[in-house]
Amino acid sequence: MGGAVRQMQSTRRAAPLNEGRSDSRPPAPTPVRRTAWVFAAVATIVALDQATKAWAVANLADGPKHVIGDTIEFTLTRNGGSAFSRFQGITPVLAVGAIIVTAVLVRVLHRATDRVLVVALSLVLGGALGNLTDRFLRAPGFLRGHVVDFVAVGWWPVFNVADSCVTVGAVLLVVRSLRAPPNRTPT
After folding, report:
1. CA 76 to CA 133: how far, in whole Å?
2. How many CB atoms are closer than 10 A to CB 73?
3. Is 22 exposed, middle or buried (0-12, 13-18, 19+ CB in 10 A)?
4. Model confidence over 116-132: pLDDT tens digits?
5. Each residue of 7-16: pLDDT tens digit?
6. Which of 14, 53, 57, 135 has the fewest CB atoms inside 10 Å of its own CB, making it the most exposed?
7. Complete DSSP assignment for 25-80
8. How far apart are CA 85 and CA 160, in angstroms?
9. Residue 145 DSSP one-character state
10. Cis ω on the peptide bond leading into residue 140 (within 30° of 0)?
């Protein structure tokens, strides 16, 4: 009889741990894996932003390049202020503010577990670091550098890849704040 019991026990397998779960979502990534993903995403955004800005500086100095008529064009501008060219003349203050925002974003990202929130904050952080890199490395000097903008769409102010990432990330944050995350239950 002992042999029959051992044989039955050895061929039997445990049920999967997610059996009976009502949702089919994959498990959330581990903190180490999430951190690696965030680092890769932010590094990619900064690299793409800086590469496109280098292209713009090298190729648009002679004037704009029309992509679709006068509606969409690449035109080189340098912004010493903040979004929409506001706050001109206080670039060092803006740079220090960006450093503080970056530190806060890193801290919040470290604790975030919601995927949409992680993606949104990664986009904002990547964009902030892309423009902060200009503040550090571009003329007229450290913490006073002007941000390179080069995409002009209709009446909208000229922007760059970093600005686009910050905008998309901000929109995702607003959308997420209007909808409860799927794992929370209303009380």
Report:
1. 17
2. 19
3. exposed
4. 999 999 999 999 999 99
5. 555 555 555 5
6. 14
7. PPPPPPHHHHHHHHHHHHHHHHHHHHHHHHHHHHHSTT--EEEETTTEEEEEEEES
8. 13
9. P
10. yes
List CB contacts of 31: < 8 A, sequence separation 6 or more.
Answer: none
What the block records as the tokens of 63 is 């004037």
Q: Residue 116 has which token pair? A: 């949409």
End-to-end CA distance of the chain: 54
- Residue matched to tokens 């900064």: 46
pLDDT in tens, 14-36: 555 555 555 555 665 677 788 89
Catalytic residue set = 149, 163
User: Could you tell me what percentage of the chain is helix, strand and coil, using 3-state DSSP and rounding each to the nearest 5?
Assistant: 55, 10, 35
